[in-house]
Design goal:
single chain; about 450 residues; alpha+beta; Beta-Lactamase; Helix Hairpins; 4 domains; five-stranded antiparallel sheet; five-stranded mixed sheet; 11 helices; about 55% helix
């Protein structure tokens, strides 16, 4: 039962507010209906008088103009199971009866110039098992029964018939319910729209878009949330810019002393020491270059553009002599320089460690899928989830001749993650490594 309720429960905030409003209004109307049903008597009296007034007027008219024989038979023939008519010398006098002046005045408006008495009665003399609702007496002025009283004894209608009279009373309630629902739903949608904008901006920020901002409007809580988000975006953008400047400065400043040390190392007389020092300095120079590449213009501030991913992959593979299987034509919003560098890093890793890989592009339900497979030694399972961390290498020698400095996959992962995608590595059962890059559907057009 609980799982069923979870499935049908609305997921959105606007939908939940709407359901809550609907339930509250329906509950209020049900309470009003119950109170009306319990009130009963006065409402039923009004409905019966309103419904019987026309028939009573027609019967009075017939009695005053009918022949004696017909006038004698009309009261009995006009009686029903819920209203009984009789002509008597005086109004029926029942025990514990009380006059209803308000109802008398209402009926007198429909039967002008008539003497009318309406009483609320407790029990009918001829119906011990049924309690009448009221007694209406009208003085006849003409005809065979002139000077006598037409007495109408009205019994309560069954619920299924009484509610037909009462339904009109609920029309204003139903109209108020629909009107309030309409206004409430429109108001709730307008109130929650800034939250949808905030969620979309947050997703854009998660993809690396530091320019995403939210309009500060709506309720004070929503304005505060939007202001906090915008301030967070400004702070993160400032932090990223400062970090990039710091890395660029470090990479740039390292090149000069590394070059000076290399020149001095070449002047050493001992070949073995000179070779070792030059190798270490070359590795440091490569590390400085990688730091500069990380902060290269376009990696973090490059604008999104519509790119042909199939054409991009074909060019990258052709430049490296890699086999590419043409895939589906896909137009994506990408940072082209950053994406070419990310995919190029993966291809270069495969070429360095395992030889030319096979590259495929496919469209699937999740978006675009790029698969890069090689036939190399793979990566040990113990570190396969760590090789995308900065300066982490599967090859432990740390020599640039046998590999880079461990920034290639890290850069690729960060670029793909900024595009809202994922980069996953797994060892193939038939040998080699498989790298799967997925870019989400919202990037494709």
């Amino acid at each position: 039962m609980r799982n069923w309720l979870e499935r049908i429960k609305p997921d959105g905030l606007a939908a939940r507010f709407s359901v809550l409003l609907v339930l509250a209004l329906i509950g209020a109307n049900l309470i009003a209906a119950l109170l009306l049903a319990r009130e009963g008597s006065s409402f039923d009296r009004a409905m019966r008088l309103q419904g019987d007034a026309h028939r009573l007027a027609a019967l009075i008219e017939a009695l005053e103009h009918a022949e004696p024989a017909t006038a004698l038979a009309l009261p009995q023939r006009s009686s029903t199971g819920f209203t009984r008519f009789s002509v008597d010398a005086a109004p029926l006098a029942l025990a514990h009866m009380g006059r209803l002046p308000v109802q008398e005045a209402g009926l007198a408006a429909q039967l002008p110039q008539r003497k009318i008495e309406i009483r609320e009665v407790g029990a009918a003399p001829d119906a011990a098992d049924r309690v009448p609702l009221l007694l209406v007496s009208v003085l006849l002025e003409d005809g065979f029964h002139a000077g006598q009283w037409l007495n109408a004894l009205a019994y309560p209608l069954p619920s299924r018939q009484a509610w037909k009279w009462k339904l009109g009373f609920f029309a204003p309630l139903a109209a108020s319910l629909l009107g309030t629902l309409l206004v409430g739903v429109v108001f709730i949608r307008r109130m929650t729209r800034p939250l949808s904008d905030l969620a979309e901006a947050a997703r854009a920020a998660g993809r690396g878009d530091r320019s995403a901002r939210v309009r500060e409007c709506g309720a004070s809580e929503i304005r505060n949330a939007a202001a906090a988000f915008n301030d967070m975006q400004r702070r993160i953008a400032s932090f990223d810019a400062e970090r990039m400047r710091l890395l660029a400065a470090v990479g740039h400043d390292l090149r000069t002393p590394i070059t000076g040390l290399r020149i001095r190392a070449e002047l050493l007389d001992e070949d073995e020491q000179r070779h070792d020092m030059i190798r270490i300095l070359d590795d440091m120079a490569v590390m400085a270059e990688e730091l500069l590449h990380v902060t290269a213009p376009g990696s973090a501030v490059e604008d999104m553009q519509i790119c042909d991913l199939d054409l991009m992959l074909a060019q990258l593979c052709a430049d490296r002599g890699v086999s590419y299987q043409p895939g589906d034509a896909l137009q994506l919003r990408l940072r082209p320089v950053a994406m070419r560098r990310a995919i190029g890093n993966v291809l270069d890793n495969a070429l360095r460690y395992a030889g030319p890989p096979a590259v495929r592009l496919r469209r699937d339900a999740g978006g675009a899928q790029i698969r890069i497979e090689d036939r190399g030694p793979g990566i040990p399972d113990s570190i396969i989830h760590e090789v995308c961390e900065p300066f982490m290498r599967a090859e432990a020698s740390r020599s640039y001749e046998t590999g880079g400095i461990g920034l290639g996959l890290s850069i690729a992962r960060d670029v793909i993650r900024d595009h809202g995608g994922t980069l996953a590595l797994r060892n193939r059962t038939q040998g080699g490594l498989s790298v799967e890059i997925r870019l989400p559907q919202h990037q494709a057009t």
